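Methods — Computational structure assignment.
A single polypeptide chain was analysed. Its primary sequence is given first, followed by the predicted tertiary structure written as structure tokens.
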Amino acid sequence: MTFELQATCPATGARAGRLHTDHGTVETPVFMPVGTVGSVKAVSPRALTGDVGAQILLGNTYHLWLRPGRETLRAMGGLHRFMAWDRPILTDSGGFQVFSLASLRKVTEEGVRFRSHLAGEHLTFTPETVVDAQRDIGSDLMMVLDECPPATVDEATARRSNELTVRWAHRAFAHYRATEPHYGHRQALVPIVQGAVHPAVRRESADALTQLEAEAYAIGGLSVGETAAEMYDIVEVVNEILPADRPRYLMGVGTPQNLVENVARGVDLFDCVMPTRNARTGTLFTTDGIVNIRNARWKTDDTPLDAALDVYHSRTFSRAYLRHLTIADEPLFMEIASVQNLAFYAWLMREMRAAILEGRFPAWRAEWSDRVAQRA
């Protein structure tokens, strides 16, 4: 995997680049739709490529380990072939999901032992077995096992947690470099900077992990309870240390405004469940602002959902029809709404990329912020 940095905004640090993988090239900055168990809810791979314009998907090692299971994925030739997706895939290690099971897990130097949220069976994740599982999945970018503490932990606790994450990362890389991919394409292992909201710990984490000379780096442990200002401050601290010639992935973030502000701070890749989760509850992101489609004001509104997007779902169906579908609890609504929200996120990333390449990102960002403020 290689990263080609095409342009950097001198005023902000926003970057445009190309991430080259064996499953194709990803133009950054980019948002990755979340396909936790090998499926983006209610959206087919054809719609993801043709309507949304998705370049890369995210899967989750924890959930794929449980269902369909590593044996099934190996038998089917990996996740790309299993789900009929020929573009890149990034898999989260499952660390965040495991550490959210606070009452069901035990952390040791070896790894983390926990009970499945499905059947309750005991499982153990170690830095090595998580690499093995992602070899079975066949993702292009694999995440190391990390400990993700709450944003509220004190500095001493954050430091102890991060030191464990760093030791696990070194073990993961040793195992990664001693093993081979299963399906004939290259895989990159990505370490995760942790440290909660404590700048000193974040610097220690970034300094230690850059010694691994990884092909990409991730920033974890944000969007977990801290303020937006704290998030932005930590991203700035970390990106001052991470190598400029490697892509930077901010995990689990976030709102459209979060994306704009973190692109301005030098982040290249994002993922979040927000666009699809919000779609299912009737909150739609459009180029004209957020629409609560269940609101009675749309009952007889014959205008398209979002005529500014060159997307079939956005231009074809009226707001009145979509309100009817969600009030009637029709499954078709999930598809239309999810495509709309993901297409909006993809549009937003393309807009930022064009502004960076054309040297007008600061003006674009100011105009965007003014539009958001006027709609608030």
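Note: The chain has a mean pLDDT of 96.
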